[in-house]
Design brief:
seven-stranded antiparallel β-sheet
Length: 351
């Protein structure tokens, strides 16, 4: 017994010594803290976030050192927030209105009221993109229950919060095929899957699981055995009969790019390259017999999938129809007409 006590005392003294050797710095002022943050960002060769908007600050921020949100914001500690993303390409915002509409539908499901009307949110996003001077990247925006306390209920939050960030990102059309696996991480229930909310832990674990197995990402299958979606993308298939099929959106997020694909793909039907385009439930067995398979997402816009669970899709090569569809979407993003592309008034709002 005495020997055991002496061991415990020794362990305690050793632990105490470790902690006593570490001195926590206490910042004496906000200016000292800001100086430390500026030192950190001075080491970054290219600023990845040229602009941020915060309704808490009440304006656009150009200094990355203060692109922060309150720790007691309910989006941070309770995951009570929604978000969406629009593409910036060649000085245009692609499908801004489609993403903004889905954003507000997600907010409604999450019971978060916007601090501004839709028109103001849209204006803020366009102005911030213009001030950022970014011509190619992504525009990501959030609605949060807001800061106020650390409770579950947002009743103590004075108001909701709106945040947005321009991300400088040099993406390009995907032309190389990738490997995927069937995820063992449970997928979200329909309510949360169809709401683009900030709780992405299942998505993160799903991607990590795939990476650990040497794959790019994963495929979720619902509890009835039907194909659902990828971790942050939709998935589509071309059958041996040249049908383009996307899984039903009843239990998954209705991707804006996937919906746009359904709108432009009939051009290939008119040209005789595709037989038809449809939304349908697909079992794993049916899906793995597909001639071609692809992820569908904003910056891809299509990513060919050539192997699934170590089984080749079709001939194991990037499919011609996949790339034809990708070309349609890429052309739509780069030079399409209509309301899909919103011009950013860089010159008018130059700082």
């Amino acid at each position: 017994m005495e020997h055991q006590k002496s061991d415990e005392i020794a362990a305690f003294e050793a632990e105490k010594a470790v902690y006593s050797d570490f001195k926590v710095h206490v910042f004496s002022s906000s200016s000292e803290l800001l100086e430390r943050l500026h030192e950190k960002w001075s080491l970054v060769k290219k600023q990845p976030y040229p602009a941020m908007y915060s309704s808490v600050y009440g304006g656009i921020i150009l200094d990355p050192a203060i692109m922060v949100i309150p720790i007691d914001d309910h989006m941070v500690h309770r995951g009570h927030g929604v978000f969406d993303t629009s593409i910036i390409y060649d000085g245009y915002l692609y499908e801004l209105d489609v993403h903004l509409d889905r954003f507000l539908r997600s907010a409604s499901k999450a019971k978060i009221s916007s601090p501004f009307p839709r028109s103001t949110l849209r204006s803020i996003l366009i102005q911030m993109t213009a001030v950022s001077k970014c011509k190619k990247g992504t525009l990501r925006f959030w609605l949060s229950a807001g800061p106020g306390n650390f409770l579950l209920s947002p009743a103590g939050c004075p108001t909701s919060a709106f945040y947005a960030v321009v991300i400088d990102d040099d993406f390009s059309q995907c032309k190389e095929g990738v490997k995927v696996i069937t995820s063992t991480i449970p997928m979200k229930s329909p309510l949360f899957a169809t709401t683009k909310n900030v709780n992405y832990l299942p998505n993160v674990l799903s991607v990590m699981e795939a990476e650990e197995k040497g794959a790019f990402a994963s495929i979720w299958v619902d509890n009835e055995g039907y194909i659902a979606e990828g971790p942050n993308v939709n998935v589509a298939f071309i059958t041996q009969d040249k049908e383009l099929i996307l899984p039903s959106f009843d239990k998954i997020l209705s991707g804006c790019t996937a919906l746009r694909l359904l709108q432009v793909a009939p051009k290939l039907v008119e040209q005789g390259q595709l037989k038809r385009v449809k939304i349908a439930d697909l079992t794993v067995q049916e899906a793995k017999r597909a001639a071609e398979m692809m992820y569908v997402g904003s910056t891809l816009p299509l990513l060919p999938i050539v192997m699934w669970d170590e089984q080749s899709i079709g001939d194991g090569k990037v499919g011609e129809l996949t790339m034809a569809l990708s070309d349609l979407l890429w052309e739509d993003m780069v030079a399409g007409d209509g309301m899909q592309r919103v011009p950013v008034p860089y010159e008018k709002l130059a700082t």
